[in-house]
């Protein structure tokens, strides 16, 4: 590095002045900022500014999936109510409303429909309320069992045994022109389905959204 | 400065060794790598560090390189699309020549890498290598461990099968328990509201670009510091680390009783890395690739999802924790664990290095290793999971029914048909969620069994609503026969008194034989 290229006291550092280069005291004065350091700092500042300006859209892009539950949910049909016999629980399927063409089979979502009698239904999420594994319905014993950690639920979705602290997640439903519709769109988890649920053992309190 | 042309009068023969030298010199003049490489290769290290205990770090880096190479090769074929990934893995397994072997190398390489990183970490900890001046080397190592585990998990997701799908579901369920922002975090993890195409795309980006990029940078910095600060000297009991004097002591050790890193110490690294690569290759060839298991179709619910080997212990923990402890534990314990790891070099940056004089350190490593082994073993056998097909697949042993009355046989039918078998084994077959029932009649009286069946309790559902009175009676009659031949069933003394008084003409008289009141207090 030649003497001319040495920094001249910028950035708060004190550089030794070259012998014979003029006013040594001037170079040692921390209040004096050389032109090249000023330009350097200006360039750094410009990059910082551009970085911040670019970071805003990048963050917005990254946070794009972070949306309200309501923006994901919509009513989907599970088919005619005749396909759900009285006092029985049946597996039903629907295509997730926000599907992409490259989702493959993953947007093919399953749920359980219990025709409780009259025009009353219960629609349960397939996901165990413990950690989301797929529960299986056993009509003989009228129980849902989870293969992962052994959560068990009664026919009305209430907790029977095991690690889950609540009953199965349920979907809101309505009957439209003889078809059963549910308000669906998200993988049911404790964060989107448990907000209004009072947790109590042995009671299926599932008036919640999934 | 290296010479560009050979000395005067020594014109090399075309294509001979002189040409090679000239080519080398041409590159060296431009790259100027010879100096730093020689410095790194020949720098003196304490003689004691040329040990077989010091080979795990280099083996981990070798495995990282193997993972990068095999990963790139797999990426030539793999399709990171939720609709196609599973099919492309099957093409790799079955149609592309030796595609299965590449997948197996990558899968086994991953397992070996996690294992070697853990062993490396335990060794470094026990040898006190995290102490001054290598605190930052340790901290980068902690992040390297986390990234290695991150690669293992994201890699399991890229094997986009049923286990990957439901494993993601478990991950999302755990994340959803974060207070306030859990829902948003789940959306970020999945790239949308459900596990779908966007989920696989972002895990592909994590597994192929983001984590490996950071991993490589961190690993190179880690190695840079090992070269600059020197390999940890062999810990001698009583030789304490002090900030003021350590560097001088180390330099003296390295120069007075040192050997050049290459070949003195490095040959063992090379040999061990070669052996590890060979072990990966043998495992890959003999045991083959991992999966893919069933299609990632959430409408196929006949599945028993299970995490990969290195996450089985978490699976166990989540089944044994009391419910109220779960959320705090899974959200806070990992953070505390990482904080402790990061704090170790600051907390114990000086002092004794030798494991001979660090009983707490030895105890900690042993305890963690034993816990990991036990929890993993339990995660392999999953005694807490119901056996979903036991009720229809495991018959009642014939010996239990040979002399049975029709009522008892009907009870056996109820026992099978109502899925009791999924949680209770008989004759060694069935679920292990509840206790085995081969001798249940010696533990519980008839009334106790009836009460338990009807009301449930603990981990048992109440069957009162789901069984008729006749079914309960038959079931309990069957259970009452389940006791060893030489051990009578438990009997309620008060019932006996009532029964006997009923059978006697003078009702209300005390039983003839008080000794029959077995199992009750006087």
TrEMBL record, chain A:
Gene3D superfamilies in alphabetical order: Rieske [2Fe-2S] iron-sulphur domain
Stretches assigned to coiled coil: none
Q: GO molecular-function annotation terms?
A: 2 iron, 2 sulfur cluster binding; metal ion binding
Q: Which domain of life is it from?
A: Bacteria
Name all Rieske domain ranges.
113-182
Q: Which UniProt keywords apply?
A: 2Fe-2S, Disulfide bond, Iron, Iron-sulfur, Membrane, Metal-binding, Transmembrane, Transmembrane helix
Q: Which PANTHER family match?
A: CYTOCHROME B-C1 COMPLEX SUBUNIT RIESKE, MITOCHONDRIAL (PTHR10134)
Q: What ranges does the record give for the region Disordered, renumbered to this chain?
A: 1-27
* Keyword hit for Metal-binding: yes
Q: What is the protein name given in its UniProt record?
A: Iron-sulfur cluster-binding protein, Rieske family
UniProtKB/TrEMBL annotation, chain B:
GO MF term set: electron transfer activity; heme binding; metal ion binding; oxidoreductase activity
Q: Where in the cell is it found?
A: Membrane
* PROSITE patterns, per database record: CYTB_NTER, CYTC
Domain Cytochrome b/b6 N-terminal region profile, which positions? 23-235
Principal subcellular localization: membrane
Asked if the Swiss-Prot or TrEMBL record annotates the protein with the keyword Isomerase, the reply is: no
Q: Which UniProt keywords apply?
A: Electron transport, Heme, Iron, Membrane, Metal-binding, Transmembrane, Transmembrane helix, Transport
Q: What is this protein called?
A: Ubiquinol-cytochrome c reductase, cytochrome b subunit with cytochrome c domain
Q: Which organism is it from?
A: Candidatus Sulfuritelmatomonas gaucii
């Amino acid at each position: 590095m030649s003497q001319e290229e040495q920094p001249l006291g910028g950035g708060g550092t004190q550089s030794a002045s070259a012998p014979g280069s003029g006013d040594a005291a001037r170079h040692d004065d921390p209040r004096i900022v050389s032109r090249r350091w000023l330009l350097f700092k200006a360039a750094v500042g410009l990059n910082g500014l551009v970085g911040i300006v670019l970071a805003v859209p990048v963050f917005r892009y990254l946070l794009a999936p972070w949306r309200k539950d309501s923006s994901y949910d919509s009513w989907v049909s599970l088919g005619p109510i005749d396909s759900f016999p009285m006092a029985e629980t049946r597996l039903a399927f629907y295509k997730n409303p926000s599907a992409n063409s490259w989702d493959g089979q993953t947007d093919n979502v399953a749920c359980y429909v219990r025709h409780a009698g009259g025009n009353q239904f219960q629609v349960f999420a397939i996901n165990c309320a413990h950690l989301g594994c797929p529960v299986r319905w056993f009509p003989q014993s009228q129980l849902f069992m989870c293969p992962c950690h052994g959560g068990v639920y009664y026919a009305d979705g209430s907790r029977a045994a095991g690690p889950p602290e609540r009953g199965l997640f349920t979907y809101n439903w309505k009957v439209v022109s003889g078809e059963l519709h549910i308000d669906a769109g998200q993988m049911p988890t404790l964060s989107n389905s448990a907000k209004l649920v009072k947790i109590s053992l042995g009671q299926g309190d599932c008036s919640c959204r999934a | 400065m290296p010479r560009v042309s050979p000395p005067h009068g020594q014109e090399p023969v075309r294509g001979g060794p002189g040409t090679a030298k000239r080519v080398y010199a041409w590159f060296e003049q431009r790259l100027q790598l010879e100096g730093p490489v020689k410095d790194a290769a020949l720098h003196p290290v304490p003689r004691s560090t040329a040990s077989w205990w010091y080979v795990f770090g280099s083996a981990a880096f070798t495995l990282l390189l193997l993972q990068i190479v095999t990963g790139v090769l797999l990426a030539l074929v793999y399709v990171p699309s939720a609709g196609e990934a599973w099919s492309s893995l099957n093409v790799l397994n079955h149609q592309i020549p030796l595609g299965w072997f590449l997948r197996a190398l990558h899968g086994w390489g991953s397992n070996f890498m996690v294992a070697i990183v853990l062993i490396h970490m335990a060794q470094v900890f026990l040898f006190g290598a995290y102490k001054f001046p290598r605190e930052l080397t340790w901290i980068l190592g902690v992040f390297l461990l986390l990234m290695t585990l991150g690669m293992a998990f994201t890699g399991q997701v890229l094997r986009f099968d049923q286990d990957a799908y439901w494993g993601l579901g478990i991950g999302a369920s755990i994340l959803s328990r974060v207070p306030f922002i859990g829902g948003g975090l789940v959306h970020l993890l999945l790239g949308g509201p459900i596990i779908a195409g966007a989920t696989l795309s972002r895990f592909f980006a994590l597994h192929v670009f983001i984590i490996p990029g950071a991993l490589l940078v961190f690993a190179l910095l880690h190695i840079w510091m090992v070269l600059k600060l020197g390999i940890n000297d062999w810990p001698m009991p009583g030789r304490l680390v002090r900030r003021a004097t350590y560097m001088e002591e180390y330099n003296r050790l390295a120069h007075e009783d040192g050997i050049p890193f290459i070949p003195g110490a490095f040959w063992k690294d090379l040999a061990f890395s070669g052996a590890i690569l060979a072990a990966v290759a043998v495992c890959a060839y003999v045991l083959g690739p991992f999966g893919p298991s069933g299609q990632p179709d959430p409408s196929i619910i006949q599945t028993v999802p299970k995490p990969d080997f290195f996450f089985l212990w978490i699976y166990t923990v989540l089944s044994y924790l009391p419910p109220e402890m779960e959320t705090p534990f899974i959200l806070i314990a990992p953070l505390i664990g990482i904080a402790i790891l990061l704090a170790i070099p600051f907390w114990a940056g000086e002092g004794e290095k030798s494991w001979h004089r660090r009983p707490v350190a030895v105890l900690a490593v042993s305890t963690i290793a034993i816990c990991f082994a036990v929890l993993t073993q339990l995660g392999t056998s999953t005694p807490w999971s119901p056996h979903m097909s036991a009720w229809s697949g495991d018959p009642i042993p014939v010996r239990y029914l040979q002399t049975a009355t029709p009522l008892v046989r009907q009870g056996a039918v109820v026992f099978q048909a109502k899925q009791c078998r999924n949680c209770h084994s008989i004759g060694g077959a069935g679920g292990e969620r509840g206790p085995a029932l081969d001798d249940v009649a010696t533990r519980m009286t008839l009334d106790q069994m009836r009460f338990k069946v009807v009301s449930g309790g603990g981990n048992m559902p109440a069957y009162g609503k789901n069984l008729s009175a006749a079914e309960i009676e038959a079931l309990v009659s069957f259970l009452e026969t389940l006791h060893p031949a030489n051990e009578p069933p438990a009997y309620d003394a008060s019932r006996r008194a009532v029964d006997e008084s009923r059978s006697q003409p003078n009702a209300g008289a005390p039983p003839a034989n008080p000794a029959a009141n077995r199992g009750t207090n006087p």
